[in-house]
Amino acid sequence: MSGFNRDIIFKGDGSSKNFIDVLPKDLTIRKEVPLSMMEPFMGYSQKTLFREVTINKYVPNEETLSFLNSPIKEVADLHVLYKEIKKAIFNTWDSSKLHIIGHSSGYDSRIISTAIKELKEEHGETWAGEIICVEVYGETKEFKELMAVQGFKNIAYNENSSPNQHHAYSFEFSTFWQKFNGLVSFPVNLWYDPYKDLYEKGLVPKEGIQGYTGYGANESMEIALKKIGFAEYYRWHHYLQLQNFKLWGDNWVHPYWQWNVQQALRGCNKWNRGKTRLAKLLCDAVVPNLNSIVQVTSKEVAKRGYRTLDNSIMKQIVNSYDKSWYGKNVKIQFRNDMSDYKPWWFHYCAASLCEYLLVNGYKISFV
User: Fold this and answer.
1) 95 and 207 housed in the same domain
2) N or C end: fewer C-beta atoms under 10 angstroms in the chain?
3) What is the pLDDT of residue 225?
4) What does pLDDT average to over the chain?
């Protein structure tokens, strides 16, 4: 069971987990859009772009309260945490499906693929089924080195493209809104855009898959333990824009979100001190054989050119926005920067959504 409610409900014309389902035919855009919709800071707004639509207030459910009130058992050996991650994967694994593992060069990915590799060795080929590891953010060299050790079939998304054209597919104006369940200011949905493209190219199936990711590992390990504690972490996560990321495919699992893993994390405070990330300490303990392979940082990814766009792509983005109904009413300045949350990507997403709605008979006005 996941360590998150995952029960965000949009309220408008009825209520639904799907933003698009609750939009009335007459919509009003807010005069001031909450900053929490554009940045991942600790803002707890129930507002959306439209005055007529809100999201439900966070209230911890019984499972969450039971978890938070349960005793904390100190983790004296990081292998205990690793065993819980491995258990979370085993308990959720569906042997009837093809498995796609979202895999970077990072520590969290190494832990997950190692756990899967060991489980495959323990339970056999029939249990494991077909497995494909997929890298999507310009860490191809290091990813391939990891795959040579792990031994999994693998795909590096747009491997031979120019870095600043790597995510060109993600910025098509007419479909930009589709990757999100609502409005988000993140430019690329790494769990939707690349996989949809890979499916359309015939490289992965659309249905009958089960995906595994390291999604949420950094926040779970660092934010919840060091800064705000799990109780406040769940509240923050409820309102976090990433909750509105759509997942491509029919079934994705995030092991670091499972209750048993987070229970073990609660007992890792003694390991979560100093400047060394808990994930690095965990890798040092569990997979020291992979330490010679570089873990690519965000700064290095940017240095390689994967955080900016080709000028022709950027020009098309600006032109599409300026010609749109929303763009004619909301003037913004784009920058060629796709690193993390940026307000202009929120507005680009809003323009894309509004264009779709207007074509389909909705009426939209400003306050």
Assistant:
1) yes
2) C
3) 77
4) 91
Report the pLDDT averaged over residues 260-277. Answer: 87
Identify any residues that bridge with 54 across adjacent strands, giving them in sequence order.
Answer: 11, 47
Residue 139 — pLDDT band, cuts 50, 70, 90? very high
| 173 touches 320 (CB < 8 A) | yes
| 155 and 250 together in one domain | yes
Burial class (CB in 10 A: 0-12, 13-18, 19+), 101: buried
Q: Smallest Cα–Cα separation from 296: which of 166, 172, 152, 141?
A: 141
Q: Examine the domain organization and report whether 270 and 314 are in the same domain.
A: no
Pick from 259, 275, 302: which residue ends a domain? 302
Count how many domains the chain has. 2
How confident is the model at residue 178, as a pLDDT? 95
25: confidence class by pLDDT, cuts 50, 70, 90: very high
- Extract the runs of DSSP E, i.e. beta strands, from the chain: 10-12, 14-16, 26-29, 54-55, 98-102, 131-135, 153-156, 209-212, 252-253, 363-366
Banded pLDDT at 108 (limits 50, 70, 90): very high
| Domain-embedded: residue 152 | yes
Task: Give the position of tokens 């949009």.
Answer: 10
What's 141's domain CATH number? 3.40.50.620
Question: Is pLDDT above 80 for 4?
Answer: no
User: Residue 253's beta-bridge partner residues?
Assistant: 212
Residues 170 and 264 in one domain: yes
How crowded is the C-beta side of 5, counted as CA atoms within 13 Å? 23
Report pTM: 0.93
Q: How far is residue 128's CA from residue 71's CA, in Å, rounded to a whole number?
A: 34
Do residues 345 and 275 both lie within one domain? no
**What residue numbers bound the domain in which 196 lies?**
62-302
Residue 4 is assigned to a structural domain of this protein? no
Residue 222's pLDDT is what? 77
Question: Strand, helix or coil at 8?
Answer: coil
Judged by DSSP in three states, 137 sits in: coil
Picking from 352, 355, 339, 39, the residue whose alpha carbon sits closest to that of residue 167 is: 339
Looking at residue 319, its pLDDT comes to: 98
Distance, in Å, from the CA atom of 218 to the CA atom of 272, rounded to the nearest integer, reads 12
DSSP 52: T
